[in-house]
Amino acid sequence: MKICVYGVGAIGGWVATRFEATDHELSCVDRSDICAVLLRDGVHLKSEDSLRKVNLPVTDCPADLGEQDLVIIAVRSMELVGIVESLQPLLGKDTAVITLCEGVPWWYLYKHKHKYKPEQDWLDAVDPNGAIWAAIGPERALGCIAYPSINRKGPGVIEHQFGSRFLLGEPDGSKSKRSQKVQQAFVDAGLRADVVSDIRSSLWLRIMASSAFSLISVLTSKKLGDMFSNYRLRREIVKVMNDIVAVAKSLGVTPSMTPKELLDVSVLLGEHKTLMLQDLEGGRQLEIGTLVTAVQELGRNAGVATDKLDTVVELAAEIGRSAGCYPKK
Question: How far is CA 154 from CA 8, 41, 242, in A?
Fold first, then answer.
């Protein structure tokens, strides 16, 4: 397959290093300043007790690459709208597009069996004015959930903490030939990849965990282990998750775990620091929009109250604004 990874940051950089070792035709795209560093120094990948350098084929000009079989978008969610036009040379009629962003994906309502009013194809919190929907085309979207924990230490410097699991799924629930082809490419790269018939159910479990853990970590500056060991914080996490479950159920999805069950399983993550807390400490913009605001939008459109979630989101946003990491009102 011709595979392009657009965004050589944490998860994008790590995935690219895995595909680089296969027979698939890999290319990578990033900003010109990042490309200069990567072309000069390569990617330095730390994993367990090893440190190795990987040279990746990277460019800042997607037009040089031509149409791809698979495009893996690994930019931050708020950057996605800004790159959709530059994606066009990579997109052919049969190109599959995976977006490795946390939260509700831009294609979520495509071929969704459950309808609500207003019947709009896109979510404004994720895709203002439907720009992503129109530029990429929802028919190209292949759902994907990435479970590996990766830290970006700097341009071209990434640390793999744990995990190699990915879930893939078509928005319409079918087990298509292209999903199986992409699955095999992931397996070729030494990654654990499964194709599921209901990607949205798994998405909501991920949204429950990511949203609640990220928001509470920003409010408390605590790692996961410290939050999980505090029964008062565990109680607040469950309350946030309960609001998210209510939204999911209004859209016809019942998560396979209760908030308490999910919290108990997540204890195994240990002393991990959420990406949102890392962004706050690193002075980067917080990804509240796709991760949480989209859930609130879905709730409003379905007539579901999310009072606890709303409060925690506003508190986290204020902390972000005070630190210069979230847009002012």
Answer: 11, 12, 36
